[in-house]
Specification:
single chain, 293 residues, alpha+beta, Double-stranded beta-helix, 8 helices, globular
Length: 293
């Protein structure tokens, strides 16, 4: 066993790790133990870290290939894999935006994020928590009939739709460029998919950029997604992480939803480094219904 301490955060997910400098993940035994912990707990919080953008990328690479964000204006100048969440840069702030809504990151991509990491450099005295909720908790509570109704169904996700919502919150957000539009075709992901690491069937869905479900009328499809979202984000099962400077949190983006909480950006400053690991193309647990038809 590595020489660090762990504390389970909630009965359903989350583990706090103290006494470990994440630079030691270069040691095979420590990396193997860390991966086992995230497989078991879905989310890890490493306390008391001090990482710059380059070191944030190095940390992320232990879990897979770092992915880039489509909004390049918010990425680190020298390390484009690092997305900077801040209201203290010489640019438009990207806080209190659509991230306040529950979501899983990059569902609009062919290869959505496998893992997401956030590192706290500057945190407000009040607000700006990050909330987490487990999709897998709800999957386990579904009846056999509910699971059967979801198997093989593909949901449609659109970044163009998501960006349109963002511009309503941030009026100065620039329209998508032709290149960004070309990089953002609609994608189709199964509502029930196989987890690539465990092989277990998992529930996978997003609301903000969902346009519908194949085989269902739009109103019926979005009502189903909202119903599942409400079950996942039941306040009785939500964990709100209160950030401390130096916290480094990484979570399985395939099994957890997350949401930022509002803070007074006129009074307080916030600066976070965010990276994500490029995931696999979601594989359905059974052949898609459209394909079977």
């Amino acid at each position: 066993m590595a020489q660090f301490t762990t504390r389970q955060i909630t009965p359903e997910f989350g583990c706090e790790i103290s006494g470990l400098d994440v630079r030691r993940l270069a040691e095979p035994a420590i990396l193997a133990e860390t991966k086992a912990l995230i497989g078991r707990h879905h989310m890890l919080c490493f306390k008391d870290q001090r990482l710059d953008a380059r070191e944030m990328v190095a940390f992320t690479e232990h879990f897979g290939e770092p992915d880039s964000h489509i909004l390049r204006q918010y990425t680190d100048r020298d390390h484009p894999a690092v997305y900077v969440i801040s209201n203290i840069e010489d640019r438009l702030a990207n806080v209190n935006d659509v991230s306040l809504n529950w979501h899983t990151d990059l569902a609009f991509k062919t290869h959505p994020s496998a893992f997401v990491a956030l590192h706290a450099e500057t945190v407000p005295e009040e607000g700006a928590d990050t909330c987490f909720a487990s999709m897998q908790r709800v999957y386990k509570a579904l009846t056999d009939a509910e699971k059967a109704a979801l198997r093989g169904r593909l949901a449609t996700y659109s970044y163009v739709r998501l960006h349109a919502k963002r511009t309503k919150i941030e009026p100065l957000t620039a329209p998508l460029s032709p290149q960004q539009l070309a990089e953002s075709p609609d994608v189709y992901h199964p509502l029930l998919r196989r987890h690539p690491d465990t092989g277990e069937e998992i529930l996978y869905l997003n609301l903000a950029d969902c346009m519908g479900i194949e085989g269902l009328e739009e109103e019926e499809a979005l009502a189903l997604i909202r119903s599942l979202f409400d079950r996942v984000t039941d306040p009785a099962h939500v964990y709100a992480h209160k950030w401390s400077v130096g916290d480094l949190v990484i979570w399985d983006n395939r099994t957890l939803l997350h949401a930022a909480t509002w803070f007074d950006a006129g009074r307080f400053q916030r600066r976070m480094l965010r990276t994500c690991v490029k995931g696999e193309k979601p594989m359905p647990s059974v052949p898609p219904r459209a394909a079977a038809a």
